[in-house]
Design goal:
The longest helix has 9 residues, at 22-30. The protein is flat and about 60 Å long. The chain is mostly beta strands. A hairpin with a 4-residue loop joins strand 14 and strand 15 (225-226). The strands form 3 sheets. It has a 7-stranded antiparallel beta sheet with strand order 7-8-9-10-11-12-13, with no helix packed on it. Strands 1-2-3-4-5-6 form a 6-stranded antiparallel beta sheet, with helices on one face. A two-stranded antiparallel ribbon has the order 14-15. The chain has one helix at 22-30, and strands at 32-33, 44-46, 49-61, 66-76, 87-94, 97-105, 115-121, 124-135, 138-149, 152-164, 179-186, 198-206, 209-217, 219-220, 225-226. It starts with 21 loop residues before the first helix and ends in an 11-residue tail after the last strand.
Amino acid sequence: MKIALTLALAGFFSAPLYADDTPARFLSEHYQPAPGGEQGAPQWQKADTPGFVYRLCLDKPLDAQQRILVMCGEGDNDHSAGADSGYFDIWYLNGDKAVSLTGEQGAGRYGQSGDVQAVRMGDRWGVVTQSGYSLQGFTQAFERYYVRLGDSIVSVATVTTYSDNLGYCEPAQDCKQDELNVNVKFGVMQPGKLLPDMKLTTKGRLEGETINKSWSLPFDEKTQRYAMGTAAGWCKG
């Protein structure tokens, strides 16, 4: 599996998606245009991180007043950020008010943060960031889930959605290969619950043996996290 760390929404501004100018007005208050941006895909910088380039990679209207904006890091002006990951800035807007979670680090490399999508979580809209890496024969991909709860944006789960050791493990050397894919869905909203259960399905090979398991994770309102520690689906048995 190849981990695509390129930002899938390049060219966001190539055509107007919405009639209002909320994104442009908001960005001009918190970011400034970066020099050298390609035509049709403006790049932005922040005063506290000069030289680091961002792009608007998600604009999700929720209703007439509310929307989600996410800025994805693309590296510095010369795209020479070395082995450092890029960052996600997540904003929930409600009219002129905003709740933000900025500087969330991806798992990419060379200044890129990864991809991002809006995701329905029961009766709420959340954000899932997607990133990954390949290093010394091992490959992993991650999804991190965020949702607004009250006056905060909360990181509620980190899921390893792909993992292999194929570049490291040679069966001829009596090495047991791993290659696992994990699919994430959300269940039906239950009365009295803050968020629905997270439903995971794992398929592939673990230590050379076939695995195909599904399980559900409840949302722990005390820790404000899905209880990933109970996810026995990574194990055989």
